[in-house]
Give the backbone structure.
Amino acid sequence: HHRRPLIVAGHDKSYRDDGILCDIIDLSGRVIKQIIRSTEDEWLISTQRNLACIAKGTSKSCQLLNLVTGDRFSLPEGLSQEHTPRKLDFMNYRASVALGQVALTGEFKLLRVIDNAFFNSRYMQLCEVFTLGGSGDARWRGKKAAQNHVNMSPLSRVVVDGVVHFLLDENLINRHVRPKGIASFDILTEEWR
């Protein structure tokens, strides 16, 4: 019912252990609504309009939460069909998930970057996309990964105008740290730039 922008503030259980998953706050700082965790091991990953992407247990098990109605929709687990033949153990990987909206069509899409949870991996990062309300074949679809490794930290990505921007991992070259760059994924074209 509020016409002005609202802020969704997620709470890490280590800082706030009262069962609150997130607060919805107006621009004056007043809490409009609080969302309660459904389980103890869930946290807020990403938001877009009235939708929030929630991780349950690990960032590989996600669901979408409608912040207005409270309805929840579980996303498929496991790798996309395109990545399944790689015979990777999905449990050894970590995932970074971002939710965005395509301005042109109004569609909501999720981008998932999957990375080996162990250092010195010989595998490249994987990239997958899920479209909400798409065809009856609701599944993750494998896409080409970014040219450089993107940072998997939740604080290293942002979605703006249908583009997911990631900071790149720092690389050590000749004992000098190269500044982080940015890799961007356009959720309309489903390509990196």
Notes: The longest strand covers residues 58-66. The radius of gyration is 17 Å. The mean pLDDT is 80. The chain is about 0% helix and 45% strand.
